[in-house]
């Protein structure tokens, strides 16, 4: 008959009188348990990291979508401004010259009036 704890047949991880493992099988089993636990921690870390990356990607995509809409509105605004400038450049130059002359006369009279009041 075999005694538990003094040789083979005891619970896994129990040691005999000399401090050695009962069998090579239990040593392998203990190492497998240790490696399994290590792997579990690594998988958990990778899972949490991938979840954080997913949240960051969603945030960045939202920011990019907002920037895209702002660029589209800016492009439309600049396009309208360019169209107005084209219309102004095609307009009659005589009208522009009349405005320039009226402005010059106005400035001349203002300066004349300021000098006269001195």
From TrEMBL:
GO terms for biological process: protein transport; vesicle-mediated transport. Its main location: membrane. The chain crosses the membrane at residues 96-115. InterPro entries: BET1_SNARE, T_SNARE_dom. It is found in: Endomembrane system; Endoplasmic reticulum membrane; Golgi apparatus, cis-Golgi network membrane. Keywords: Coiled coil, Endoplasmic reticulum, ER-Golgi transport, Golgi apparatus, Membrane, Phosphoprotein, Protein transport, Transmembrane, Transmembrane helix, Transport. GO terms for cellular component: endoplasmic reticulum membrane; Golgi apparatus. SMART domains: t_SNARE. Residues 26-88 form the T-SNARE coiled-coil homology domain. It comes from Pipistrellus kuhlii (Kuhl's pipistrelle). It is a single-pass type IV membrane protein; Single-pass membrane protein. This is BET1 homolog. It comes from the Eukaryota. Belongs to the BET1 family. Required for vesicular transport from the ER to the Golgi complex. Functions as a SNARE involved in the docking process of ER-derived vesicles with the cis-Golgi membrane. Interacts with SNARE complex members GOSR2, SEC22B and STX5. Interacts with LMAN1/ERGIC53. Interacts with STX17.
